[in-house]
Amino acid sequence: MTNSANQSQKPVTTVINSEGNIEIGGCDLVKLAEKYGTPLYVIDEKTLRSICADYKKAFEKYPKTNIMYASKALCTSAISSILASEGLGFDTVSGGEIYTVNNSGANMSKVLFNGNNKSFDELNLALDLGVGRISVDNFYELALLNTIAQSKNKIVDILLRITPGIECHTHHYIQTGHLDSKFGFDLTQIDEAVELIINEYTNLKLHGLHAHIGSQIFETSIYADEIDILCREISRLDEKYAVKLDEINIGGGLGVKYTEDDVPPSTYEIGEIIVNSLNKAIEKYNIEPPAIFLEPGRSIISMCGVTLYTMGSSKQVPQGRKYVSIDGGMADNPRPSLYQAKYFAQIANKKDTNDPENVTVCGRFCESGDILIENIELPKIEEGDILCVYNTGAYNYSMASNYNRVEKPAMVLVNNGHSDLIIKRENLDDIIRFDVIPDRLKKNE
Ligand code: LLP
Questions:
Q1: Any ligand 1 atom below 6 A from CB of 215
Q2: What CATH number should be reported for the domain holding residue 195?
């Protein structure tokens, strides 16, 4: 079956150029590091557009498919504008994401608002900016949203987020579809929610059901199970309450290739499984073909991104391992310390890998756990070398912090030899931007 860009460990434009340096999007990484400084997030536009094309092509056989990029993976105005230009919608989970997507000029009717504890202000913002669907997570939110909708004299289009009771094999922090989850209505609570919508919450219009099983998933069969459950529920609710639901949202989760050991399915493979299971379920439950929504995040943006670091100090532990330090770490990529995530890296300015040494790449933050990559073979490292860590487009910048009061890195978009700054590097003034010293403390000077 055809490959898709999520299966590639590196951006699709990655080459070694005539100077022996790694080049992405036609830009020499060493020159990018010189121009913009490090750490630096680099996003390859061609890889991003090619995975969008893969997703669209993979679902051609089911025209009622809508790809809603899960903004939590990486949400910036420029990235959102590229995805909007590719015709994607957006899954958002906060006022901040909704505001960013709106700032990118995206069509807000193609935005879904998701989350287990949306605030009054966030729901208001979503309605004011014309967000197309709210995925209601719990009874509290049903009541709150109906009140807000009434106050605005609006009918709000909603889905119900449900917990389908499916477990997948991924890190337990990123599993969500199992029964003991903080997200969504339990299967046994759906009827009560539907009855409330029919009888009391008349400012809410229910269009369908939504579920999400987990993230960095390689098993395709769980999507078939999920679709079966969602279609079964749609048919059951029609029979019991005569409610016609014509949308199912199956969430995101498709995995990517962080290391050689990761073998994610292609978009084409999951496209086929999803469309086949959908057709099967439509027949089995005798329902009208629903519109289907997918919310991929990681599999759209992860492999588009790399992070560049400058190598600094190193330490050879006597009779132990060799640590080499980078100028970033757990604040710009918390995934290794949070999920024991593994990454692959190369030295951007050294193509000669004849005499590799085994090193542990550690961050500059004040924690022993700030280790980015354990035991990797790299060419003999010298101070000033540029390390390129692959597959950092997803859940890196979006989860970055200012731990140790370190400025967050810049992000550039590369394409055809051009580079454009899309997130400015923070500076020391940004670090103290929100600090307030109360007058009474100043008086004590
Ligand atoms: N839809 C819903 C409702 C979700 O909760 C998520 C991810 C997605 C879609 C997108 O899933 P993806 O296609 O990206 O796997 N910070 C973690 C990942 C947390 C994912 C949370 N939900 C990590 O760095 O691995």
A1: yes
A2: 3.20.20.10
Q: Is 161 in the pocket of ligand 1 (CB under 6 A)?
A: no
Catalytic residues: 366
Please indicate, yes or no, if residue 150 is contained in any of the structural domains. yes
pLDDT, tens only, 424-436: 999 999 999 999 9
Q: Please work out whether the CB of residue 335 comes within 6 Å of at least one atom of ligand 1.
A: yes
Spell out the SS3 assignment of the chain: CCCCHHHCCCCCCCEECCCCCEEECCEEHHHHHHHHCCCEEEEEHHHHHHHHHHHHHHCCCCCCEEEEEEHHHCCCHHHHHHHHHCCCEEEECCHHHHHHHHHCCCCHHHEEECCCCCCHHHHHHHHHCCCCEEEECCHHHHHHHHHHHHHCCCCEEEEEEEECCCCCCCCHHHECCCCCCCCCEEHHHHHHHHHHHHHCCCCEEEEEEECCCECCECCCHHHHHHHHHHHHHHHHHHHHHCCCCCEEECCCCECCCCCCCCCCCCHHHHHHHHHHHHHHHHHHHCCCCCEEEECCCHHHHHHHEEEEEEEEEEEECCCCCEEEEECCCCCCCCHHHHHCCCCCEEECCCCCCCCEEEEEEECCCCCCCCEEEEEEEEECCCCCCEEEEECCCCCCHHHCCCHHHCCCCEEEEEECCEEEEEECCCCHHHHCCCCCCCHHHHHCC
The atom number, within ligand 1, closest to the CA of 296 reads 13
Give me the pLDDT at residue 236, please.
98
The answer to whether the CB of 256 is under 6 A from ligand 1 is: no
Atom of ligand 1 nearest to the CA of 176: 5
Residue with CA nearest ligand 1 atom 21: 174
Instruction: Give me ligand 1 centre to Cα 343, in Å.
Output: 18
Q: Is 122 in the pocket of ligand 1 (CB under 6 A)?
A: no
- Overall number of domains in the chain: 2
State the pTM of this model.
0.96
pLDDT reported for residue 177: 58
Domain boundary residue among 296, 327, 351? 296
Residue nearest (by alpha carbon) to ligand 1 atom 8: 252
Q: How confident is the model at residue 37 (pLDDT cuts 50, 70, 90)?
A: very high
> Residue 363 sits in which domain range?
1-44+302-445
Q: Does ligand 1 come within 6 angstroms of the Cβ of 385?
A: no
- Which residue among 160, 267, 295 has the greatest number of ligand 1 atoms within 8 angstroms of its CB, and so is best to mutate? 295
